[in-house]
């Protein structure tokens, strides 16, 4: 019966019995048992909030709401749980809490049957099915299913971190993040894997870990179809396609796709090498590099080539090796078009065009394009000859020089002249021989202008001018 109909009733009409709702809102048709309740309700439509907190100025539609709010300032929590002693500012909060002990979940989702202890939790859950995200961020437009999620998100823009760790002073945007952090100090890992017994500080990390056992990879890249066990791993991967590198080094300006990659890079500038080998005490910037190094001592080569059975310590080394079989050379020089199997080889090659020689000998100042060439050169000063012939004991500064020398003993001459069929032990000897056929004499004397096919022939000739006797 509407309020208009109520006014038309005869004076002798029977009055409503009990707590029948007779006071109706003209705005939304909601009805109430008392005029006072209706009056309070109307403030939702008018926006009127006549009750103000003297402490902080927050206003409310009812004195009851103000009274509950004031307990934030007084610290009063008059409602206590008989089971565990936890106290609350509102009776409703206590009632919801008690369901933890009783296991009661009176609010059920009609879509999927999931049950909840609070009606608010059910309401938030139902938005999963409806897709409703009624809370929107004014800064960036991101939408959320709950006001709490929006409030937490807004701290990204404000920089607010209201939750602080008493141990180390680190601050956090959410109380749950603080709780997880505290476990670093306590060592507590309450979440355990039933498969392998490994423990974790967070349930979400355990959930991700479970996927190792199940093989589940629920996150996939729409660009290339690659799948991932975590959303964060997918997010990082997407930067491969977008080219985004949001983390940058203040020292040198280099950018990175992940914060961990930046952290590792910073050790280049600081010189920090926190990971060390107990076998030889060599230190490393990353745990991965240490793990790879340990295989030197263990002899482990877990990555095997299916083509030739050669084994390697790292997957990257195997990947590069496979290009020998496939002939793939994915790295190309823009200057001359020469292709390479490795990016490092291309980088070294490009120094031919730029003239860059970044490796310098401290003894004599000679510069080199490669660190390996510098290392070999330094043996001139140290006298070190680490490569020894097992046949005659002759020692060499380079492994290639030893290999060429061993052909004296084996008689092997793998380099053959296409013009006359003469064979040679080294490619350099063949190259010098070719000049007999071509007439090329690239070495010339600055004293008299005479030219020669080899540098050694020029060297012998120079003694004519210097008077030096060999």
UniProtKB/TrEMBL annotation:
One of its GO terms (cellular component) is chromatin. It is found in: Nucleus. Pfam families: zf-C2H2 (PF00096). Residues 1-27 are annotated as: Disordered. Residues 1-10 have a biased composition (Basic and acidic residues). The keyword Repressor does not apply. GO terms for molecular function: DNA-binding transcription factor activity, RNA polymerase II-specific; identical protein binding; RNA polymerase II cis-regulatory region sequence-specific DNA binding; zinc ion binding. InterPro entries: Znf_C2H2_sf, Znf_C2H2_type. Gene3D superfamilies: Classic Zinc Finger. Keywords: DNA-binding, Metal-binding, Nucleus, Repeat, Transcription, Transcription regulation, Zinc, Zinc-finger. It comes from the Eukaryota. Residues 23-50, 51-78, 79-106, 107-134, 135-162, 163-190, 191-218, 219-246, 247-274, 275-302, 303-330, 331-358, 359-386, 387-414, 415-442, 443-470 form the C2H2-type domain. Belongs to the krueppel C2H2-type zinc-finger protein family. This is Zinc finger protein 420-like isoform X2. It comes from Gymnodraco acuticeps.
């Amino acid at each position: 019966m509407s309020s208009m109909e109520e006014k038309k009733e005869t004076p002798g009409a029977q009055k409503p019995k009990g707590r029948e709702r007779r006071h109706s809102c003209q705005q939304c048709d909601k009805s109430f048992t008392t005029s006072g309740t209706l009056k309070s309700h109307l403030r939702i439509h008018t926006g009127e909030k006549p009750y103000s907190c003297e402490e902080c100025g927050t206003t409310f539609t009812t004195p009851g709401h103000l009274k509950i709010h004031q307990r934030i300032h007084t610290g009063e929590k008059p409602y206590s749980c008989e089971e565990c002693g936890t106290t609350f500012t509102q009776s409703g909060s206590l009632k919801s809490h008690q369901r933890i002990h009783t296991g009661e979940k009176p609010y059920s989702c009609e879509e999927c049957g999931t049950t909840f202890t609070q009606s608010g939790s059910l309401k938030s859950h139902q938005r999963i099915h409806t897709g409703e995200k009624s809370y929107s961020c004014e800064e960036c437009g991101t939408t959320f299913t709950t006001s709490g999620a929006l409030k937490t998100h807004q701290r990204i823009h404000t920089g607010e971190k209201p939750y602080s760790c008493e141990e180390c002073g680190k601050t956090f945007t959410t109380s749950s993040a603080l709780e997880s952090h505290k476990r670093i100090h306590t060592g507590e890992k309450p979440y355990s894997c039933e498969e392998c017994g490994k423990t974790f500080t967070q349930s979400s990390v355990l959930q991700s870990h479970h996927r190792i056992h199940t093989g589940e990879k629920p996150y996939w890249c729409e660009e290339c179809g690659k799948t991932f066990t975590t959303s964060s791993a997918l997010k990082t991967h997407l930067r491969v396609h977008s080219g985004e590198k949001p983390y940058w080094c203040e020292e040198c300006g280099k950018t990175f796709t992940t914060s961990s990659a930046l952290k590792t890079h910073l050790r280049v500038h600081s010189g920090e090498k926190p990971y060390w080998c107990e076998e030889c005490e060599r230190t490393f910037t990353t745990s991965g590099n240490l793990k790879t190094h340990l295989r030197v001592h263990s002899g482990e080569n877990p990555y095997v080539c299916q083509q030739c059975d050669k084994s390697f310590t790292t997957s990257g080394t195997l990947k590069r090796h496979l290009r020998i079989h496939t002939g793939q050379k994915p790295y190309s020089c823009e200057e001359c078009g020469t292709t390479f199997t490795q990016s490092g080889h291309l980088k070294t090659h490009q120094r031919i065009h730029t003239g860059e020689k970044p490796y310098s000998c401290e003894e004599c100042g000679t510069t080199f394009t490669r660190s390996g060439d510098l290392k070999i050169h330094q043996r001139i000063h140290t006298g070190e000859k680490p490569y020894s012939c097992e046949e005659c004991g002759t020692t060499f500064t380079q492994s290639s020089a030893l290999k060429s020398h061993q052909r004296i003993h084996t008689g092997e001459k793998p380099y053959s002249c296409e013009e006359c069929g003469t064979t040679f032990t080294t490619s350099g000897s063949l190259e010098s021989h070719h000049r007999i056929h071509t007439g090329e004499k690239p070495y010339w004397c600055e004293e008299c202008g005479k030219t020669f096919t080899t540098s050694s022939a020029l060297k012998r000739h120079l003694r004519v001018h210097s008077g030096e006797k060999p």
